[in-house]
Amino acid sequence: MTMSMETCIEINDLSYVYHDGRQALQGVSLRVNPGEKVALVGPNGAGKSTLLLHLNGILRGDGAVRVLGQEVAEPHLARIRAQVGLVFQDPDDQLFSPTVFEDVAFGPLYAGLSEEEIRRRVGWALAQVGAEAYVERVSHHLSLGEKKRIAIASVLSMEPEILVLDEPTAGLDPRTRRRLIGLLQTLPQTMLVATHDINMVAEILPRTVILDGGQVVADGATDDLLSDAALMAAHGLEVPHCYTPHAEQHHRQ
Amino acid sequence: MRDYFHVSRIMLMHIHALDAYRFKASLVHRLDARVKLVLAVGFIVSTALTPDGAWLAYALLAGLMLSVIAAARLGVGFVLRRSLVALPFALAAVTVMFTTDGEALLTVHVFGGDLSITDAGLTRFVSVLLKSWLSVQMAVVLTAATSFPDLLRAMRSLHLPKVLVAVIGFAYRYIFVIADEVARMMRARAARSGTLSLSEDGALSGNRRSGGSVFWRARVTGGMAGSLFLRSIERSERIYDAMVARGYDGEVRVLRHPTLQLGDLLIALLFALVLALIQLLARLI
Questions:
Q1: Superfamily of segment(s) A2-252
Q2: ipTM score over 0.85, yes or no
Q3: pTM (2 d.p.)
C-alpha cells in the first residue's frame, strides 16, 4: 500500500482486445512517479492512445491500473477523472460546447463546484494557457493552435494532478508548436505524453517509454533510448537531430 | 465556369457562412435573449393566428416587422434576401387554392376532371404566403441579432427540455466541423477527377466528359455520404469519451442565467401589447 501511495500511475500486466478481435495492448506494465515527465512513443497503431484511455477508465482492459493509489474502477472513477486530465488529439472532439467558457467550465461543473469557484477556475485555467481573451469566443472560429491550448485549459480547470496528452504538437506550425512546448514546460503536473514529435521528447520529457505492437519494448532515460539508433530503427522511429553525431560534427565545424 | 468558381469558393473558405449571427450595436442585439426568443415565437404564433384576408393586419404586422429590422440595424435587403430561402416551402400551400370552397375564378381540365381556383382559395393562399414570409423574417432577425450560445442559454432558462437544448447545441457546434469535412472530401474528389486524353489512338479524347455516367457519379456521391456518416459516428464516440473524461454522468448541467432587467421586461410588454392590438383589429374589421 505504501508503495502505491508513492506511485502516481501504476499499471500491471494490462491487456486490451478491440471489439474486432485486434489485440491493442499485451501485458503492459508501467510505473510513473509523481512529477515525472514521460514520453510515450511508438509507431502508428502501437496502442499509445488505447493505453491513455485506460488511465481514467474510459477503456477497461484485463489487468490492474492504479492512479494515485486508487484502482481505476467504479467507486473511484469520478475522483480519478478529476485527477487525470486527458487531452485528446483532435481538439474538435474535446471542445464540444458552444463557447470556450462552457468548455472550460464543463469539468468543474460536473465536479459539483460552486458557481464562483467555477468562474474562478475558468479564469485561472485560461490564464495558464494565455487565452483569457477567448472566454466568450465560439470554438469553431478558433485556429488549431488556439483550440489545442484551450483543450488543455479545459482539463487544467479541474486542477488535475496528472496530465495525459495525446499528440499535443501534431499539425501545428513551428511557431505554434514552440509556444505549446513552452506551455507544457511551465505546467508542474506529472505528465504522460503520447507523441511522434521526437524532438519535443528530447527537449522536455526526460523519460521515454517505447510501445510497439501493444507491448512496452523499452523504458528508460530519454537520452539513452533516443540516441540508440538500432533500437529506434527497430521500432520505426528516428533518432532526433540533437543526438545524431552527424549534426554534432556540423555544429563543431 | 461560374459554377466551378462557386464550388471552389466553398471549398477554400472555412465554412463560416452558416453562422447566421451578425454583430451590430443595436437595441435588438442588446435585448435579453430570453425576451427575444419569447417575442419572436409570440410574433410567429400571432401571425399564424391572424384570419385569412385580414390585409390591414398583415400591413401592420409588416410595419412592426420593418421597425424591428430597422431597430436591429440589419438592413431590409439583408433580411428579405435571407427570408426568400424559406419561401419555396410555402408553395406547399398551393393546393388550398383548389380545395377551398368559393366562387370559381379559373377552371382547368386535368385528367378528365375540372379543377377550379376559387376566390376564397386565392385569398387563403396569398394569406398563407404573406404570413409565412413574415414569420421567416422574424426568425431571420432573431438568429441574426442573437448569438447562438445566447439563444441556447435562453432556451435552457425558459425550461425547454435540457436534452433537446443539448442536442441543438451539439448540432450547432458540429455542423461546422462536418461541413469542413464535406469540403475536404469534395476537394479530394475534385483533385482526382481529371479528364484523361489518350490522343494517339483516339480511345479517349480530351473532350470526353469527366466523371463517368450519372449512375457512376451517384454511386460515388452515395459512398461519400456513407463515409461521412461513419466518420460522424466515430467522432460522436470520441466526443462522448471526452465528455466522460471530464466527469459527464448522463445528466445535463448548466450554470444559472442572470435575472431579467426591467428595461427588457418593458420592451417585452410593449411588443406583446402591439401584437394583441393587431389581433383585435384583424377580427374587428
A1: P-loop containing nucleotide triphosphate hydrolases (3.40.50.300)
A2: no
A3: 0.77
